[in-house]
Amino acid sequence: MRIAIAGCGQLARMLALAGWEMGHHFSFIADPGEGTDCVAGLGEVVVWDEETPFAALFEALGSPDVVTVEKEHVNVNLLEGLAEYCRVAPSPDAIRVCQHRGREKTLLQSLGIDTAPFRVVEDAPSLIAAVESVGYPAFVKSCELGYDGQNQWLLRDTAALDALADQMDALPPLVVEGAVHFDRELSLIAARSLSGEIALYPLAENRHREGILLTSEVPADNVQAATISQATEIAHTLLEHWSYVGVLSIELFDEGGKLRVNELAPRVHNSGHWSQNAGVTSQFTNHIRAITDTRPGATNPGQFAGMVNLLGRAPADELLEAADVTLHWYNKSIRSRRKVGHLNVQSADRQQLQKRLVELESALYPDGETL
To answer: Which fold has domain 184-368?
Structure first.
C-alpha cells in the first residue's frame, strides 16, 4: 500500500522504516519551512499550503491508500480534504480534539474519565477567576502547541498570577489546571485496527526533566490489577468513542492506584519507543498494521525494557559498545533540549534494568546538568 504521513519528524521516520519492512511505500506532507532531514530518502516530500487544491495534493502524494499523522498539530481542513479521496486514520475529529487541551479535557470528562480540575481562559479576568477556583499551585498551559515544557507556567502565588495576567492580551487561549498530587506518571500505548481489534502495551512509568520525557520503564513497577483494569477501561472507552484506527497514546497520573488522564496523543509516542527492541511488535509497526487493517502484533515483552532520550546530545562511543544498548538516531542537528535520538535497553531483571537506566542517564547528563 501507499501511505502518506502528515509531518516529517522523527516519528514519521520511524513509521516509514517500520512500514518499509512490510512492503509499504510512503510520501510525506510538509508544512512550509518544515525540516525534512528525518525522512530524507524515505519517500516523496510534498509541501502543502492552503492554496494547494486537495486533488492536486493527493496526486502529488502518489494517490495514497491511507493518510496518517505523526503529530496532532495538523491542519484539520487538510485531513478532511484528503478524506474525500482516501481513508484518513486516525479520524480528523480525533485529531481536532487532541490538538486542543480544552476540547480534549472536556471530552474526557464527558466520557466519565477523570482529569485534573481545569478551566479554559482567554483573558486576564477569566485567568484570575480560574486560578482562584482551582487554587495554588496552578498549572497553566496553552490550549495548542504547548509541549516539552514550552508555553507552560507554574503559578505558586498572586505575584506569578499577576505577571501572567499582564501578558494575556498577547497569549492564545489557555487551560488552567489544579494541582494533582500524583505518585508517578504512567502512559499507555493502545492500537486499534480498522476491523476493531485492540491491542494494549503494558503501562510504562515515565520520568521527566525540565518538562521533557527522559526515561521510560516497562512494565511499570508495582501496578495493582485494579489500576491495569482502569487503564484498560479508559483506553477502550476512547478507542470505541472514535471508532479509532491507529495508535492512541494516553498519559496518566497515578494517585495511589487511581488514574487521571493528563493528555492524549493521537499517534505513536515517545514513551512507546522501548517497543522497538523488546521482542514485541513495535508501536510503529502496530500503527501501520492498524491503518492497513492488519491484526495487531504482540505487545507484551518477555523482558523488562527501558528507553533513555537523547536531548540535545549524542552518546559517547563507549555507551554504544555495551551489548544491551541500541541507538535510534533521528538525523537531526543537535541543539539544546532537542530530541535527537534515544537509547533502548532490556534486561531479564528489573533491578538491573533500573540500574542501567540510572547509569545511562548519569553518563549522558552528568551531575544532573540542565538540558
So the answer is: D-amino Acid Aminotransferase; Chain A, domain 1 (3.30.470)
Q: What is the domain partition of the chain in residue ranges?
A: 2-88, 117-178, 184-368
**Alpha carbons 69 and 91: distance in angstroms, whole number:** 10
pLDDT mean values, one per 10 residues, the chain (371 residues): 98 98 98 96 95 96 98 96 98 97 97 96 95 94 78 92 93 93 96 98 96 96 97 98 98 96 97 97 98 97 97 95 96 94 98 97 85 74
The pTM of the whole model exceeds 0.85: yes
Q: Where are the beta strands (DSSP E) in 116-202?
A: 118-121, 138-142, 152-155, 174-178, 184-192, 198-200
Closest CA to 85 of 186, 4, 194, 188: 4
Assigned architecture for domain 117-178:
2-Layer Sandwich (3.30)
Placement of cell 500500500 in the chain: 1
The distance between the two most distant Cα atoms of the chain, rounded to a whole number of Å, is 58
- Architecture (CATH level 2) of domain 2-88: 3-Layer(aba) Sandwich (3.40)
